[in-house]
Amino acid sequence: DQQVKQNSPSLSVQEGRISILNCDYTNSMFDYFLWYKKYPAEGPTFLISISSIKDKNEDGRFTVFLNKSAKHLSLHIVPSQPGDSAVYFCAARDAGNMLTFGGGTRLMVKP
Amino acid sequence: KAGVTQTPRYLIKTRGQQVTLSCSPISGHRSVSWYQQTPGQGLQFLFEYFSETQRNKGNFPGRFSGRQFSNSRSEMNVSTLELGDSALYLCASSLVAGSGNTQYFGPGTRLTVL
Q1: pLDDT tier at B101 (50, 70, 90 boundaries)?
Q2: Is-contact B11 B30, C-beta < 8 A?
């Protein structure tokens, strides 16, 4: 049973608009959440993270929101740029300091 | 500082064979984690090594094994390959134990099993 789910395998957005990527989790013991970005033929790179004691973290065009009661987090990219086209993975950390990843969402930003 | 390197980058094997993949972490990093990436399944954790000891293991059959050397380089071995083992295998290194800390990923090894 997947503890971290990204229900949208793909998302297409126009350049300049907002991209919203969603992630749901089931384990209430997760205490830290991360987003990774992956380009083809490269390994994932860390993008942004949020602690479970916060509900929002912002870094430039990227903002992550956490709704603990709904066990839901989202990544907002504003404005979206063609270079943001990649696969985005959300990940959650447990008490053993291990990460569980979601299945990924492929974002396509059209010029 | 050199990043995480993985060799080989691409590999084609047939069912029943075995394969060994190699990962060299960032200099000074002592933790190496391995992941399997398949379409729709995301990154599934295989195992983590820290200071030559397996610290954690994911839910994979015993055909998947690994080890870490004193220089922190790690190898992963898959025996009796099956078609379903075709995937991108990623390794990631970090300074301290526990993949929850900032990890740096290598480019991966693309394994195709025919």
Answers
A1: low
A2: no
Nearest to B30 by CA among B3, B80, B68, B66: B68
- Which whole-number Å values give the CA distances from A49 to A61, A70, B21, B59, in the listed order? 14, 18, 30, 26
Calculate how close chain B gets to A73, using CA atoms only, in Å: 17
The C-alpha atoms of residue B10 and residue B86 are separated, in whole angstroms, by: 11
Over the stretch A58-108, which tens digit does the pLDDT of each residue have?
A: 999 999 999 999 999 999 999 999 999 999 999 999 887 788 999 999 999
Q: Is B99–A99 a contact, with Cβ atoms under 8 angstroms apart?
A: yes
Cβ of B98 and A97 within 8 Å? yes
- Does B105 contact A43 at a Cβ distance shorter than 8 Å? yes
Instruction: Answer yes or no: is pLDDT of B80 > 70.
Output: yes
B106 interaction partners in chain A (CB closer than 8 Å): 43
User: What is the rounded CA–CA span in Å between residue B114 and residue B108?
Assistant: 19
Q: Do B105 and A96 touch (CB under 8 A)?
A: no
Peptide bond into B25 cis (omega under 30): no
**Tens-digit pLDDT profile for residues B2-15:** 799 999 999 999 99
Question: Which of B25, B76, B70, B24 lies closest to B47, judged by CA?
Answer: B76
CA distance B70 to chain A (A): 23
How far is the C-alpha of B26 from the C-alpha of B74, rounded, in Å? 12
